[in-house]
Amino acid sequence: MAEVMSFFFVFFFVSPIVLCRASLSSDDLPLERSNFPSLQAEEMIRKLNLFPAEKLNLMEHDPSLTQRLVEKRFKFPNLVGDFEGVPVEDLAHHAGYYKISHSHAAKMFYFFFESRNSKNDPVVIWLTGGPGCSSELALFYENGPFTIAKNLSLVWNEYGWDKASNLLYVDQPVGTGFSYSSDARDIRHNEDGVSNDLYDFLQAFFKEHPDFSKNDFYITGESYAGHYIPAFAARVHRGNKAKEGIHINLKGFAIGNGLTDPAIQYKAYTDYALDMGIIKKAEYDRINKVIPVCEIAIKLCGTDGTVSCMASYFVCNTIFSSIMSHAGDINYYDIRKKCDGSLCYDFSNMEKFLNKKSVRDALGVGSIDFVSCSPTVYQAMLMDWMRNLEAGIPALLEDGIKLLVYAGEYDLICNWLGNSRWVHAMEWSGQKQFVASAEVPFEVNGSEAGVLKAYGPLAFLKVHDAGHMVPMDQPRASLEMLKRWTRSKLTEGGADQGNLVAEL
């Protein structure tokens, strides 16, 4: 333990230059170069087979910034066929920019797909994590209206979430995807900045689309969006209470395989890895020596929010990197799979498609680079990484705002066990009842697609046969999950199950 505390001291009191050259004498706490933020961000991007031309969308000059709105209805080229005989023009697909009113010079890019079912369906916004990865990853590979074929044509997604909602994808934080600014002060470092930008975006969106402002509104996303989503939900709720701008009919928020309460979730890494056979008991015991230090570091991060937050990022990530040093070529997004060299998924067709001139002309993005994942945004959010975003959730639950936390069972990096533990540990008026509630099967088409636990406005769903990206691995189940959750019918079946979630 003395060796561990010495390690802790080094991270807190040694200069960043020395940190980059530091090494440990103990095998218990390997400090690899891949732990450093710039390299970790690049490694994450390469594992998805993405090669953005730029690290950030920061433009020197933008003459169009005086414009309030740049939006157009569009039709993607290379789209195969109409949807069930309905021309795509009648489905109203939009893309464009809104100027973020309280920023210096930021414009946020988005896609908006009106529901294939009914305009009265809820408005659902999706946020991809990273931090710093474009939401187009989800649009084309998870729950959007289309998927990309090998020849770069678009094929209708039978289980796109636009079949049950009016669906928004936003490139955020600023600098991600097609979103950009001409002022470096618009690069965000914490959830205050992120949530305020998103709130300003929504105000602009509903001002331009007033017909949807009365619809139920839900916030969804995955991975690092486990930070974005609670902060954004709290910001919307606060704006509604203060009667700021347009009232947003917030009904709920959903976090998929997210990072929300790091103190609990990092502690769960070794338990999950041992349970799934990724590490052995001796390795488990060695790696666990750093957990008390990680917990102390996270507490200090919550106290001053500066250098200690950076230190906690380094300290706590040795837990994950130590597990991976024993795991070999395992895909930490889905432990059933192996990574081929640095490649764990191949999402390169997204970059190829969005860089086609015909596509860029259809979207009206001009010469702006598409930054699929931004290492600069990733690094800018480091002070935010170890913050506990669970803290603001109980107040939302008490006011009847629904929360669904779901997680694929084979994801390591934001595993279901850590997510389940923070949900169960969260203190709110219904905590005891939630903990005491029985688990019930989540059935889709007569088969068990997951295990559900719910009480009042809170629900937790462990999804079978899925990794980090549940809508990609289990598209039918994820669409059914969205439908039932937004309709307050997460379970179907007997009276007992109905009573279990009667208040959802």
UniProtKB/TrEMBL annotation:
<keyword id="KW-1015">Disulfide bond</keyword>
<keyword id="KW-0325">Glycoprotein</keyword>
<keyword id="KW-0964">Secreted</keyword>
<dbReference type="InterPro" id="IPR001563">
    <property type="entry name" value="Peptidase_S10"/>
</dbReference>
<dbReference type="InterPro" id="IPR029058">
    <property type="entry name" value="AB_hydrolase_fold"/>
</dbReference>
<dbReference type="InterPro" id="IPR033124">
    <property type="entry name" value="Ser_caboxypep_his_AS"/>
</dbReference>
<dbReference type="GO" id="GO:0006508">
    <property type="term" value="P:proteolysis"/>
</dbReference>
<keyword id="KW-0378">Hydrolase</keyword>
<keyword id="KW-0121">Carboxypeptidase</keyword>
<comment type="function">
    <text>Probable carboxypeptidase.</text>
</comment>
<protein>
    <recommendedName>
        <fullName>Carboxypeptidase</fullName>
        <ecNumber>3.4.16.-</ecNumber>
    </recommendedName>
</protein>
<dbReference type="InterPro" id="IPR018202">
    <property type="entry name" value="Ser_caboxypep_ser_AS"/>
</dbReference>
<dbReference type="GO" id="GO:0004185">
    <property type="term" value="F:serine-type carboxypeptidase activity"/>
</dbReference>
<feature type="signal peptide">
    <location>
        <begin position="1"/>
        <end position="22"/>
    </location>
</feature>
<keyword id="KW-0732">Signal</keyword>
<dbReference type="GO" id="GO:0005773">
    <property type="term" value="C:vacuole"/>
</dbReference>
<comment type="similarity">
    <text>Belongs to the peptidase S10 family.</text>
</comment>
<dbReference type="Pfam" id="PF00450">
    <property type="entry name" value="Peptidase_S10"/>
</dbReference>
<dbReference type="GO" id="GO:0005576">
    <property type="term" value="C:extracellular region"/>
</dbReference>
<keyword id="KW-0645">Protease</keyword>
